[in-house]
Each structure stands twice: as structure tokens, then as C-alpha cells.
Amino acid sequence: MSLHTLKLAPQDCGDCPIRHRAVCARCDGQELAKLEEMKYYRSFEAGQNVVWSGDRMDFVASVVSGIASLTQTMEDGRRQMVGLLLPSDFVGRPGRTMAPYDVTATTDLVMCCFRRKPFEEMMSVTPHVAQRLLEMTLDELDAAREWMLLLGRKTAREKIASLLSILARRDAGLKARAPKGAISFELPLTREEMADYLGLTLETVSRQMNALKRDGVVELEEKRRIVVPNFDRLAEETGDDADGGYLS
Amino acid sequence: MSLHTLKLAPQDCGDCPIRHRAVCARCDGQELAKLEEMKYYRSFEAGQNVVWSGDRMDFVASVVSGIASLTQTMEDGRRQMVGLLLPSDFVGRPGRTMAPYDVTATTDLVMCCFRRKPFEEMMSVTPHVAQRLLEMTLDELDAAREWMLLLGRKTAREKIASLLSILARRDAGLKARAPKGAISFELPLTREEMADYLGLTLETVSRQMNALKRDGVVELEEKRRIVVPNFDRLAEETGDDADGGYLS
DNA sequence: CGACTGCCTTGATCAGGATCAAACGGAAGG
DNA sequence: CCTTCCGTTTGATCCTGATCAAGGCAGTCG
């Protein structure tokens, strides 16, 4: 086990175009400068694989644009998505060389990479980096546990509603707990990818999407364009507590 | 979201009776001494609640003995376990005050606690602590993702086998990938708790346990005492890759 | 233009696990 | 001793989502 996704909160990035800079926001600039020298970019096309489970992975990276997904696969082909990386998310694990799951470009993708060794060295001399990474990892862990509740106990309809709610919220101003007015966004996932995310089959995803449409919870135009006329209505369908309850 | 479990690797503890000392194993002893002064113990009876989801939680702690579980609950009562804390595991999140899930003593439990504020201050002056906590959190995240695969894609039988395999391995020398010979251990969970862990109902757990017994994969004596005559046989039932594949 | 391909929808049927219900067995307590 | 209670087993039935199969709809390439 060795790969991880870590979120860089937008407010830490300021107007810096390369989000990962935030890692050093609180440290003196010297190490940051070294970091800048080290970095390099890699692009991937939609559907392309970034690393395979079991491969050696001697870099860490943050997503600049596009979406990547982490998936685990059983020998007989059953697949489960275990992470979804959006711009500013971090991937890679200091201290381990082997990737524990597949990383795939879901859309066209640009990542900003650092070789692992120098990054680790930098980490050990700039304490804030480890602290920031710790915070991000804890957030990731919380998200994983919420996801576990979804996988273990929610109905198909609730799963779909939860996913749409997450995407809608992320799309309509990241911090808004309960966005007001209609929200419209592009689905970045195919039905099959949604199924892998939710622990369902693609047929069930398709049926439940249309059920939510039929019931007026969402509108579908062009299969991939989603309109949520009333966010609260959607939130009711998720089975979650009404209040996000996210205080400090 | 704010509560977390973090493993302290046994080798870090040496012969220290209180595992959490390991946190400072690599730092100079001054901060450790301060830590020793700060600590205090709390005991709980089996079934007793440690903190409720949403409560203020102004301490962090490590498990000294017994087992605690982290669970999330939906308003209608559906429950999903999202963490299982064994001796030497760490719980609590530096930087947040609110507990995001219920923490419950599954067996009689002793925890060693630190008030959060001083612990955080100590963290910021001893960099190795943050690094160690980061490592532990990353391990926890990997475990959560393995768990997600189980919840999303495994059959009831595979889920049961996976849980028994985890417990058997943990019981028969922690590091052994594939223990040899018969393993015998006490089940620390009720059928209902197993169900909450696996995303099943307790009836299904009971049936599948007996099915595994009928098929000679495990032996049951006294409902809670498990004997695994052949670990490899059990491992086949989990659906996982044959090799644990855990290299660095 | 037609054929192909990738993605999605829809229908029919099946089955794994949930649900509802009853009963068992051992421990604790009167 | 009997009763109660808790955890567990077992049975009967139901239902959600999986599976198998076919067809639709764009976009693309020959």
C-alpha cells in the first residue's frame, strides 16, 4: 500500500497558478525555490493509464487539470474505484515505492510531478510540509469513510444521488454547503465509471439516473449534462443528515 | 470530519509498556518528558460509548488494551463501521474539535489520553511526530481503501472470509503474511458488529459463518472461538490476490 | 453513403441477501 | 428452580440489484 491523494485547500494557493506550491506556503522560500526547480509536467489522454498497481512509482504529483481515478481490481475483473483526483489533489506516497492501485486518466490530464527522493528530503527539513500533508491525508481518510458508508449501506438510488450531490457541490462554488438556485454541470464520468465508483453495475446506474429524472430530482440533457433545479431536493435523496455538520 | 486512528508499529515501541511513547522515539527526550506529564488514562466497559458523533472532542488517545470501533449512523438507523481500533492504535485528530463518528468500546477498553491543545503544540516543535503520524494515517487510508473494495464488490462469503483472515493474521504473529499450521483465536465481535463491519445483516453473517464451517474452511467451537486449520484455504475464499504484495 | 464503435438505454429473468418471524442456548439473577 | 435476556441460529418469503440480451444513438472512418 503506498499511494495517496491529498487535497490542497484553495485558500492556501492564493493566486499561484501551480497549486502544489501551497505545500510550502508557510515555510521560508528557500525550499520552495528548490521545489520549483525539481518539478516537471506530464500529460495524459483520457483513458490512458498513469501507473499500474504493483508498478514502481518514484514520483509524487499533483493534478493541474483534468480528472484521474484510483481503482482496485480483483483477478476476476471486478473493479472498485477508491479515489477520484480533481485539480489540486495530490497523489503518491512519501516513503513507499510501489503503487497499490491503478491510476488512470479519466479525462485529459496534466500532472505536476516531483521525483520522490528529493521530495522526501525536502519534507524532512521543512516541517510544515509534513503537517500540511497530514492535514490533507486526514481529510482524505474522512472522505474514504463517508464513501464506506455509501458502499455498505446506501441503496442504489441514494448512491446515485450522493454522487451527483458531491459533483454538483464541487461544481457550484467549492465551499457552498447547500448551493442555491439551479446548478448545471457536465458529468465527467461514464456510466461504467460511475458504477465503479458506487459499487453498482452500469445498467443499474442508467436506470436510477432515469428514475431521478422521471421524479424531477434532476434534468438530463445530452446524457452528460446534468441540471439540478433544487439542490435541497437532491440532498434529501442521499440519505445523509440534513446539515453537513462540518464545523471545525 | 475530525477523528482518526493511527497505528504505532510495535517495533517503534521497544519494551515501553505504553505504546504511544513511540511517537517520540526519534526525537530528543525533552518533549517526550512533557508528553509523559500530560498523559492520563480512561477506562470503558464493553458496550460503553467513548464519544458521540458531533460531540466536542478535545483529546487524542491511543488504545492501551481492548478494542474500540468507529461507526457512522444514518438517521433511519442504518449503521456502518468505518474503523476498528486495536491496542496501539491512535484516535483523534489534531486540528479539529468535532468527532465525525461514534467511538464505542467493543470490549473492555483502556485508553491513554492527551489534551489536544498541548499535544498540538508539542507536534509543532517535534517534526518527527508529524511525520510519524503521517505515515500512520497513510496506512490507515490504505486499509480504508481495501475495505472499500470489500464493501463494494465482494460477496457475503468473501466478506466473511476476508474479515476472518484479517483477524487470524493479526492474531497469529502480526507480521506473518500467511501463517502456517492451525490458528485459533477468539472473535472479538458479535454477529451484529461483524455485520456492521461488512455491510451485511447479522442473519447473513450467521448463515455464511456456518457455511464456511460446513465446508471445512473454519471450525467453530462455542460460537466465538475460531479455528482456521489451513490459512491458505481461507485466503482463497477472500477473493484477494494470492500474494499480499506488500513490498515497500 | 454505410459500417463500425463506444456509450447508453431498455426489457426479461434470476439470485443473493434482506426482511420478517420464531425458537434455541447459555449466563445471570431472583 | 424458573425467568429473563442477549446473542445466535434457522426457516420462509420478498425484493433490490445483477445478469443476460437486444436495440438506440452519435460520432467517426472507410
Jot down its keywords.
248 residues; Arc Repressor Mutant, subunit A; DNA-binding; alpha+beta; 12 strands; homodimer; Jelly Rolls
Report, as a whole number of angstroms, the end-to-end distance of chain A.
30 Å
What Rg of chain A is obtained from the alpha carbons, in whole angstroms?
19 Å
Biggest pleated-sheet summary of chain A: 5 strands, antiparallel
Which chains make the largest contact?
Answer: A-B, 55 and 55 residues
Q: Residue share in helices of chain A?
A: 25-40%
Strand order of the largest sheet of chain A: 1-7-4-9-2
What does the overall shape of chain A look like? Answer: globular
Written overview of the protein:
The structure is a homodimer. By secondary structure, chain A is an alpha+beta fold. Chain A has 2 domains: about 5-150, Jelly Rolls; about 155-235, Winged helix-like DNA-binding domain superfamily/Winged helix DNA-binding domain (Arc Repressor Mutant, subunit A). Helix content of chain A is about 40%, strand content about 25%. Chain A has helices at about 10-15, 30-40, 115-125, 125-155, 155-170, 190-200, 200-215, 230-235; strands at about 5, 40-45, 50, 60-65, 70-75, 80-85, 90, 100-105, 110-115, 185, 220, 225-230. In chain A, the strands form 3 sheets. Chain A has a 5-stranded antiparallel sheet with strand order 1-7-4-9-2. In chain A, strands 3-8-5-6 form a 4-stranded antiparallel sheet. In chain A, strands 10-12-11 form a 3-stranded antiparallel sheet, with helices on one face. In chain A, helix 2 (about 30-40) runs antiparallel to helix 3 and helix 5 (about 155-170) packs across helix 7. The two termini of chain A are about 30 Å apart. The interface between A and B is large, with 55 and 55 residues. Chain A binds a DNA duplex (30 and 30 nucleotides) through helix 7.
